User: Fold these one by one.
Assistant:
Number 1:
Amino acid sequence: MSTGFFYDERCFWHGSGNYAGLLPVGGLVQPSETAGLPESPETKRRLVNLLRVTGLAHDLAMQGAEVATRADLDRVHPAAYLDEFQRLSDDKGGELGRRTPFGPGGFEIAALSAGLSKAALASVLKGDHKNAYALARPPGHHCLPDYPNGFCLLNNIAIAIEAAKAAGLAQRFAVLDWDVHHGNGTEAIFYDRDDVLTVSIHQDRNYPMDTGAFADRGEGAGLGGNLNIPLPPGAGHKGYLEAMEKLALPEIRAFQPDVLIIACGFDAGANDPLGRMLATQETFAAMSDQVMALADEVCGGRLMMSHEGGYSENYVPFCGHAVLQRMSGSAIHVADPFDGVFELRQPDTAFDAYLTTVLDGYAAALESEDR
Ligand code: ZN
C-alpha cells in the first residue's frame, strides 16, 4: 500500500499579513519587503518541489482533498467564531486572535487545509493508504475552539479526528506533537476527553509561554490523557530520541489508540528562526522510524502526519523529504545539505547528561502517579 500525500496549491496562497517577522509593522518596525510573518508558503512549496525534483513524488500517492464542510468545523469551533471568520474573509480579510492574519477568501483556504488533514486521516482509517501526510497550511495546533493564535485559524487535527469519529472510522486517537512549540490548541480541545491522548514535545516556554507544563495532565475524564514534555533550549538529536523512548512512546503504547497522528512541525530543526533546538534531518527520520514501529505495534501501522510549523526555507524541505522517504519506504534518499554541520553543533555530554536528568525526573513523576 502507498503513502498518501495530501496538498493543494491554494493552501500556499493563504496571506500572512503586514508583519516584519513576528512584529506587526508600525512605529519603529520597518515594513518587510519580502517575507511578512515567518509562516510563509515558501517552506511548504519548496518541500513539494523537492519531492518532485528527486522523484520521491512518484513513490507517493499525491492528491488533493475536499474542503472541510461547515458541519466538520462546527464539531470543534463555536458558530460565533466561524461566522466572524467567514464574514471578514468574505470582505477584505483581517485578523482574529493573535498573529493569525488572513486575506480575502482566507476562510475557504483554512477549511481546505483542515480538509487535507481530514482526508489524510480518513484514507488511513479506510485502508486506502498504509499511512498519509497532509501538507496543511495554515497550520492548526495552536488554535483553540474560539481563539486562533500562532498562525493557526482552525484546528486541523481536531477537525480531522471529530470527522473520523462522526463517520465511525475510529474511536481512540493519539496525537503526538513534535513541533518545537506547545500544541496548546489540541491540548485544550481534548483536555477533558478520555478518547484522545495528546502528547507534546516542545521547547520549554517558547510559545505559548504560559502553557505546556509537565504538570498539566488533563482533567475530569481526560485526567492522565495529556502529556507535556518540555525540553530546555538546546536539545538535539540525542535528547529528542531519548524523550521519545522514555516518555512519548510508552504513553502512547499504554493508551492503545486506533490510529497515531503526528502534529509534524519542523521548527525543532537546528537553523529554525522560531526555535532554539538542534534537531537534524536525521532526527526527523529517526523519529519517523520510531512512530512507524510503534504504529505497527499498537494500531496496525495506521499513521497520519499533519504539517504544522517549520520556518527554515532551506532546511524544512530536506527534513520533510526524509520523513516522507521513511513513511513510504522509497529508495530515494537525499543527503542533509548542511553536510554534517548540525551534527558538529550537537550539545556536549554535560548538556545531554542534564537533559537525561530532566527526562528521568519526568519519568519518575509519571511512575509515581496514582493511576
Ligand atoms: Zn511551531
Number 2:
Amino acid sequence: MPKNVMRRILVTGATGQIGSELVPELRRINGDENVIVGVHRRPPSDELKDAGPCEKVDVTDRESIEKVVDEYEIDTLYHMAAILSAGGEKNPWLAWDVNMNGTYNILEVARERSMARVFIPSSIAAFGPETPRDNTPQETILKPRTMYGLTKVAGELLCNYYFEKFGLDVRGVRYPGIISYKTPPGGGTTDYAVEIFYEALKHKKYTCFLSEDSTLPMMYMPDCIKATVDLMDADLSKLKHHTDFNLAAISFSPKELAEEIKKHIPELAVSYEPDSRQAIADSWPKTIDDSAAREEWGWRPSYDLAAMTEDMLKNLRIRYETGQL
Ligand code: AKB
C-alpha cells in the first residue's frame, strides 16, 4: 500500500477515545470524504460530523458493517470498537459479543471483499499474572483473567490466522493505557490517568481507584495515533509480527503522575481508595519491551511523563476556559 494512495476507510468505534482522534488524522491524510465514522453507542462530535460521512455501524450485526462497506467501497478498516477491561468485568457477555463476534464479523467482511488492510488493536490486557511484569517480552505467557484480556488474546490469534490462511493484511498493537484530553476513555483500568487531570484542574483533589504504587504502561494520544498510522503504512515485507506488537512509551505509578501534576498545581491533594480494578492492574505489566515494533517499523515515542503532563494541562485549561468543558 504505497503512502500516496488514497484509501477508502471505515473506522468502527470512531467516537471513542482513540477513534475520535484517529479519524481527523486519517481524514487529513486521505481526505474528509474518504474516512467514514462508524457510530454506535456514543454520538459523534460536531468536529467528526461536520467534516465527513458518519454512518451507524454495530459491529455485532454483520449486515450493518456490510451495508456501509459496500455503499462507500471501503478498502481499509480500523476496528476500534471494544468493551474495555473494567466495563468487561461488569458485563462479560457484552464484552464477548462486541470483542469476539465484532472482530470475527470485521475479519469476515474484510476477507470476503479482499480488503487492502485491516487494523485491529490488542492491549496490555492480553497479559496476565504469570507474565513477567518488568520489560515484558514480545513472546511471553498470555493467560489474562479478564474477559477483555482473553478476547484480546483470541483476537490476536484470530487475526494472525486470517493473515496466514487467507492472506488478509491484518495489523495490530498491544495498546498501553492511553492519555488524552479530547474524548474521555470509558470502562478501562488505566482511566485514572485521564480523570486525575480533569479533577486536578477543577477541584484540586482526586481519589484514585488504584494504589499509589500501581505502575502501568501508558502513552500520550499523539504517540498512539502516530503508532497506529505508522504501523498501517509499514512495508509488509519488513514485518515479522503482524497482529500483536508490544508498544511502549511511558510507565508510571499514580503517585509519580500526581507528583508530576503537582509541579504545575501544587495544591493538588490525591488520596487512594483501590477498588476491584486494582486486581486487574496487579495482573498487568509495569514496563514493556517493544523492540520488535522499533526494529520492524521504526516505532519511537515522542512524549515522556513531563511533556505529556504539561501538554495535557495546557490543553485541558484551554477547554475549561473556552467553555468546552
Ligand atoms: C483498559 O484499561 O482496559 C484499557 C487498556 C489498557 O486496554 N485502557
Number 3:
Amino acid sequence: MNYNIALLKGDGIGPEIVSSAVKVLSAVGEKYSHTFNFTEYDIGGAALDKCGVPLPDETVEGCLKSDSVLLGAVGGPKWDTLPGNMRPEKALLGIRSAMGLFTNLRPAKLYPALKSECPLREDIVKDGFDIMIVRELTGGIYFGERGMREGKYGEEAYDTECYSRMEIERIVRVAFESARKRNKKLTSIDKANVLDTSRLWRKIVHEISAEYPDVELEDMLVDNAAMQLVRNPSRFDVIVTTNMFGDILSDEASQITGSIGMLPSASLCGGTRGLYEPIHGSAPDIAGQNIANPIATILSAAMMLLYSFDLKEESQCIVDAVDKVLSCGYRTKDLANGGEYLSTSEMTDKIIGML
Ligand code: NAD
C-alpha cells in the first residue's frame, strides 16, 4: 500500500524527533512492503519566521490532502512575546479545527522497565497500568459562550459548558469501539451530581452501551476519578470524558507514567485521517543536541499505522520494538537517572534494529 503523510516538524526538538519517526516508518515500510511518502509543511515558530504566520494556508491544504499528519511540537522563547493570535501554539488550535479533530486519544502506559520512574508507590503500580483516555476535543466549556460583565459585586467573568447530543454520541462511540479493541472496559467520567451537561452525557452513554453489550461500562464522578488514578490506576482500561475533564485527567495520567518523552497521542475526526503527535512540547532547553527522547513521536507514528491505516501488525511491531529496547536497558538521557544514555539517533537505530 501507498500512504501520503504530511510532516509538521515545528520547533525545538520537533525536527529531530519527527526525523526519528520517519526513519522508523520507512523501516516498517520496507519490512512490510508499504510505501510511505512524506511531505514537509511549515508550522509554529518556523512558519512565523518563514511566512509571517504560524499556520500558513499551504500547510492546512497539505494536511487536508494527505492520508495522515505527523506533528513534532511548536513554540519556544523566541516567539513568547508575540500577541496571542501570532503565537506558534495558535497553529495547534487552527490545524485541529481545520481537520475537524473532535477525538483525542491519549494512552498512558507504565512500561515494566520504567517502574522506577513512576512517582507512585511500588505496591500501587506492581501490576503496571495501561490506560487509554478518550477526550472530546472540540466542544464543552473551552468553546462555549463566554464574556465579561458587571455583576452584583462588580467586574465578573463567565464561561459556559454546552454539549449537543451529536457531540456526545460521536465521542462515546469512538470510546466504545476503542474499548472493544482492548480489554472491553469503559469508564465514563462526568459530574452528573451537579451538571446538566453531565446528566445528558451519562444518559447518552447508557443509551449507546446497549449497542456494545460486550463492553463493561461504569460511570465515575470526576473528583473520584482524579483520586482513583493515583490510588489504583490499573483499574482503568478506557476512559471517556469531556474536553476540560479530559485535559486535566490526561495530564495527571501522563505524570504517573513518570516520563513525558514516552507518551504519544492521536487526534481523530471520525474518518481515517488523523493528527499524531507526542504529548510533550518543543523542549527548547535540549533542542539541537541530539539528546531528546524520540519514543513518544515513534509511538505516535505507531498509533497512525493503527488508527489511520488499520495496519495492526505493523503498529504492534513498533510498540514491541520499543518494549524490547527498554527491557534491554537502553535509555535516553531523560530516563537514565544520571547513568549512561543513548543519543536520539542511537535510540532510533536501536528501535529499528528490534523491528
Ligand atoms: P516541554 O514538554 O517542551 O518540556 C518540559 C520538560 O520536559 C523540559 O525539561 C524538556 O527538556 C523535557 N522534555 C520534553 N520532551 C522531551 C523529550 N522528548 N525528551 C527529553 N526531554 C523532554 O514543555 P515546556 O518547557 O513547558 O514548553 C516548551 C515549549 O513547548 C513552549 O513554547 C510551549 O508552549 C510548547 N508546547 C508545545 C506543545 C505542542 O506543540 N503540542 C505542547 C506543550 C508545550
